[in-house]
User: Which sequence fits this backbone?
């Protein structure tokens, strides 16, 4: 994760219709003038970081949006200028931030943010990760019953990085924007894992019910 800054700092921001999570790989195509200006700024930076927040109401285009006050700092891994003038970026989510204040949108959206680390948990993280992995495997099994031959690989748990493993399992589950936003706000990895298990179990039950209707 990079240095923890306890004080607020300015960050270029990219509001998206779907919030992202730490550890998630994020491909983006930039074509709006304000985001091409952002790409230009990032281009010259060694550690090219920007923030992604979910849009709670409104649209990505046009700026008439209501943006979430929690987001994720993402780091650019690759940036390619395309022949038609667009810029393609692949970035990875690194850490969670709180948005303290939105600044002027020119030349691109910007905010004052503060790093928002999880509360520190001493024990029980291994059990939480194992429970979440079990819920995700059950979801995949339900999906395979409906779609035989489904080729997906559930992420494995890294015992040295349990909190990262929990983020990875949640990202893999492909939850909707509201669920993703709620899990991003959880105070610590155990609370996050418990909420994710509930959401994933509900999805699995829904898949099983759909499957029963087809049979």
Assistant:
């Amino acid at each position: 994760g990079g240095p923890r800054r306890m004080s607020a700092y300015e960050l270029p921001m990219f509001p998206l219709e779907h919030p992202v999570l730490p550890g998630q790989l994020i491909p983006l195509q930039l074509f709006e003038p304000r985001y091409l200006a952002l790409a230009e700024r990032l281009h010259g930076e060694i550690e090219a970081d920007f923030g992604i927040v979910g849009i709670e109401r409104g649209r990505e285009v046009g700026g008439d949006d209501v943006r979430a006050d929690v987001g994720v700092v993402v780091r650019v891994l690759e940036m390619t200028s395309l022949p038609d003038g667009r810029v393609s970026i692949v970035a990875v989510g690194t850490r969670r931030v709180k948005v303290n204040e939105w600044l002027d949108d020119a030349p691109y959206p910007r905010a004052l943010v503060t790093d928002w680390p999880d509360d520190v948990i001493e024990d029980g993280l291994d059990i939480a990760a194992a429970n979440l992995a079990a819920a995700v495997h059950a979801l995949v099994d339900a999906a395979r019953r409906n779609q035989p031959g489904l080729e997906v690989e559930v992420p494995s748990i890294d015992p040295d990085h349990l909190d990262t493993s929990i983020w990875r399992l949640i990202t893999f589950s492909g939850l909707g924007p509201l669920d993703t936003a709620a899990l991003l706000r959880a105070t610590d990895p155990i609370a996050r894992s418990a909420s994710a298990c509930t959401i994933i179990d509900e999805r699995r039950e829904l898949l099983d019910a759909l499957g029963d209707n087809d049979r």
